[in-house]
Write a structure and sequence with these properties.
Length: 216
């Protein structure tokens, strides 16, 4: 196969940033192809040939840009996790007060995991295939993401906006709710606006906020 540009990635994988930091357009295509293949076949059943051919490249093209299949998974996971962290950090910074900040965080967190469900599913559920070094790097980003949410909940508790007995557990519950969207969401199953709105209301109710009523 030639290095044509006819192969288009699935719509939802074209997100996160979209893959800012990937060193070339060809490498970007390889990452997108890998995400699609990992999601359909699983990491271990995917071959480097699957990834290269899926990107419209010659079977051995992956090794020109990445030293291994695991490195492609790491790139996809790193980009996806960093995109989530940067997005919810910006969402919190753009809102006033703990209720509005949590509302903004949850809204964006859920939207990302619905709009880019394939990439997020791979980034979240194929972590076991990473090397120890790469896993530690992803774990650091995950801890930073947890800290953003945990700190906002604590601010709400301190101000009296939230009633939460265990802040770390509440943060973990919010993360788990949003991440699981990437596992089950399919386009057309539910409008993303409605999905995000419902999750915001659920989280505010869980945190004991007066605004936590479900939307009509």
């Amino acid at each position: 196969m030639t290095d044509s540009t006819d192969t288009a990635p699935p719509a939802d994988t074209a997100g996160p940033g979209a893959l800012t930091g990937v060193k070339s357009e060809v490498a970007r295509r390889l990452v997108l192809s890998a995400v699609d293949s990992f999601a359909r076949r699983g990491y271990h059943a995917t071959t480097t040939r699957d990834i290269s051919v899926g990107a419209g490249l010659s079977p051995a093209a992956l090794y020109v840009h990445f030293p291994s299949k695991e490195q492609v998974l790491f790139e996809a996971s790193r980009i996806g996790h960093r995109f989530v962290l940067d997005t919810i950090t910006a969402a919190a910074a753009g809102a006033d007060g703990p209720v509005d900040r949590i509302r903004a965080i949850v809204d964006r967190f859920v939207r990302i995991h619905a709009e880019h469900h394939t990439m997020c599913r791979v980034a979240q559920y194929e972590l076991h295939a990473l090397t120890d070094e790469h896993y530690r790097e992803i774990a650091e980003i995950r801890r930073a993401t947890d800290a953003v949410i945990r700190d906002e909940i604590q601010r709400g508790v301190d101000s009296g906006a939230f009633t939460v007995g265990d802040v770390p557990t509440a943060a973990l519950a919010i993360l788990s709710l949003g991440i699981d969207v990437s596992r089950w969401y399919q386009p057309g199953r539910m409008a993303i606006d409605a999905l995000a709105g419902n999750y915001v209301a659920l989280v505010l109710s869980m945190l004991g906020a007066a605004q936590g009523t479900m939307p009509a």
